[in-house]
Write a structure and sequence with these properties.
The protein is an alpha+beta fold. It has a two-stranded parallel ribbon. The protein has a two-stranded antiparallel ribbon with strand order 3-4. Strand 1, helix 1 and strand 2 form a beta-alpha-beta unit.
């Protein structure tokens, strides 16, 4: 008998984490009964498309909400990025700098964690970072 054999679970969830948990419970032997709303999954469940970055930047809704922002990257030059989805009238969020290149902040983070310069250099020499 499996760990959860004999256990019955009624799954009333409508978002991915709930369905994932139900799958895990079923994998451990539970009898999972999924309860769907009348009309199926599409009934009243908030959802949206999943875009690639170029599609997200070109989306008319994202552009109308001021989500597409122009930034200057030190190596790549001018680029567009998606801004903060939270809009506040008195203090609107604005991207000031692009995301750092991979590893650009590694030394500073390691120093903040208490590593000495020699230790950071040794990690670099060993290709750990």
């Amino acid at each position: 008998m499996m760990a959860l054999g004999g256990l019955r679970v009624l799954d009333r969830t409508h978002v991915l984490p709930g369905a994932f948990c139900s799958m895990l419970l079923a994998d451990m032997g539970a009898d999972v009964i999924r309860i769907e709303p009348p009309g199926g999954e599409a009934a009243g469940i908030p959802a949206g498309p999943i875009y690639t970055v170029p599609e997200a930047l070109a989306d008319p809704h994202a552009q109308a909400r001021g989500m597409v922002q122009d930034l200057v990257h030190p190596e790549l030059g001018a680029l567009k990025s998606l801004g903060n989805p939270v809009k506040m009238s008195a203090t609107p969020p604005r991207l000031r700098t692009p995301a750092p290149a991979r590893g650009a902040d590694t030394d500073a983070i390691l120093r903040d964690l208490g590593y000495a310069d020699a230790e950071v250099a040794a990690l670099r020499a060993a290709r750990v970072v």
